[in-house]
Amino acid sequence: MKHLLKKSLAVSSAVAPLAHGLIVPTDVNITIGQTERLFIDFSTGETSTVSGSVTATDAILSFGEGFFTAKPRLSFSNADYQASADGNYVARYDFGAALNFDTTVINNSDFGYNRKGPWHDDTAGNVGYAALQNTATFKEMWLAIDYVDTAKTLKLISFAFADTADDIVAGQVPEPAETGALMALAAGSVALYRRRKRLALKKSA
Asked: What is d(CA 169, CA 18) in angstroms, rounded to the nearest whole number?
């Protein structure tokens, strides 16, 4: 079954600059099987299993092709992204763990192979976290993933990003003060848009 879900952050990088110290989360809750792919645009928060339906695809969650169909994979359409690695595989973090980018993997990064890897034998409800970084924008992010090894399904629950200098941990979300700051930025952007629209209408009258 095809899913189509577009989620926009209250404040995206296109609306207002991300203030230092803020964590920007996005809920997703989409499950894919071996025949589906999940396209992700981190800057807007858009996610979809339909190709071309997000503004700009940064990453793709999928299962490998041919002999490798039972193997989850993280691919990057944006060359600035890399994933934290555990050997040759995408590293798996528990909630609250510090993210480590001393070793990274890039395009077509596998979660495991031939019954090996840190995600091997994961069961439903046993949420793990993948860690990504963008070397151009100096952002780090976590992806909350519920992978079921026996069923070969992968659910992206949510993701969040912040400045590399903030050293976020797996699963970290904004504190109440940060949420208020995000809402204030969003409200300010909306107010500015409305003001410009009113001025434009007056000029055309």
From this structure: 18
Q: What confidence score (pLDDT) does residue 10 get?
A: 32
**Residue carrying the six token digits 């109440």:** 176
Query: How does residue 114 score in pLDDT terms, banded at 50, 70 and 90?
Result: low
Encoded tokens for 150? 């026996």
**The one-letter amino acid at 20:** H
Q: For residues 152 and 119, is the Cβ–Cβ distance under 8 A?
A: no
Residue type for position 106? I
Q: What is the structure's pLDDT at 192? A: 58
Q: What digits encode the pLDDT tens for the residues 50-106?
A: 988 999 899 999 987 655 556 789 999 889 999 999 988 999 999 999 999 999 988
Q: Note whether 146 and 29 are within 8 A (CB).
A: no
Q: Which of 6, 125, 106, 108 is nearest to 55 (CA)?
A: 6
Whole-number Cα distances in Å, 6 to 9, 13, 41: 10, 16, 10
